Amino acid sequence: MRFKVTVLAGLLMAACGAPAVAQQAAESNPEAPARPSPQTAGAEAPKPAARSAPREIPAEAFAAHMEALRKRAPEGFTFVVQPPFVVAGDEEAKRVKSRAAHTVKWAVDLLKKEYFDRDPDHIIDIWLFKDEASYRGHAKTLFNETPSTPFGYYSAAHRALVMNIATGGGTLVHEIVHPFMRANFAACPAWFNEGLASLYEQSAERDGRIRGLTNWRLAGLQEAIERGGLASFQALLLTTDDEFYGDDKGTNYAQARYLCYYLQEEGLLAKFYREFVRDQATDPTGYATLQRLLKADDMAAFQKRWEKFVIGLTFP
């Protein structure tokens, strides 16, 4: 069987001729946020019944949007149309174009192949700032925002992903998941929205499919398991968005991520997504869907098996 693993960092290195870090930059910092900033308010299942056809954004709309960005941005930026995004960056032009093709397009193509039937129905900007000074300075001048994370965030008010790309591409891939989730599963609870997005902070391509790898969140999760401080899956899946983001969010992110990782390794993650979307009216948290796919009448016993699985993982 053909086996190909292309870690995102390798994609950037090969394309740009320079080292790049694809994972979340601060691997030692389990509190590094990767959700939309608070400053901006295996086996495939059959796809659900067809929805109304999504509106396709015409090429001329992208061209007009890019021209408007050119007029607004300071000098020194390169602009690339990469639907459903327009990528803008202040690194050298060759590098910006490479990131658009080898990070943005790569992630979009594989995420759509695995999960998403619909593109966002509006153009979203991806601003790739070359370093922290550029990131913080331009966030203020372009959006009048002060970033609360050193890595990047999604600004709903400006329909923009605002990234310090010097920290690597992992946060960028994480944030790309969110507008697609919003377009395809608007009622998605925070635990799965962030769990799936976090899964791809460290990612690879195997046989034409995107795969999440172990990452920096593992150590904190293993510590929580060892001290017996982890919530039950029922409790995690029942969290409100405010509870997920506010109460022990580092552990919540990690537990959600490695539940998705387990489902991926069992060949169930894409099937879980599709059945969760299909049954969201009767199972808004996903707990019944999870229990059914795992064939787990005793979720406490499953959690013990999952915890043993997690303890056996390594990173790097």
Percent in strands? 5-15%
The arrangement of helices and strands along the chain is HHEEHEHEEHHEEHHHHHHH
Give the overall average pLDDT: 86
- Quickly name the level 1 CATH class of the largest domain: Alpha Beta
Structural class: alpha/beta
**Helix count?**
13
Radius of gyration: 19 Å
What's the β-strand tally? Answer: 7
Write up what this structure looks like.
The chain has 316 residues and is an alpha/beta fold. The protein has 2 domains: 8-19 and 55-184, Glutaredoxin; 192-197 and 201-311, no CATH class. Helices cover 48% and strands 10% of the residues. It is built from 13 helices and 7 strands. It has helices at residues 8-16, 59-72, 93-114, 132-143, 170-184, 190-199, 217-226, 233-237, 241-246, 249-265, 269-278, 287-294, 299-311; strands at 78-82, 85-89, 124-129, 152-155, 160-164, 203-206, 209-212. The protein has a 5-stranded mixed β-sheet, sandwiched between helices. A two-stranded antiparallel ribbon has the order 6-7. The chain starts with 7 loop residues before the first helix and ends in a 5-residue tail after the last helix. The relative contact order is 0.15.
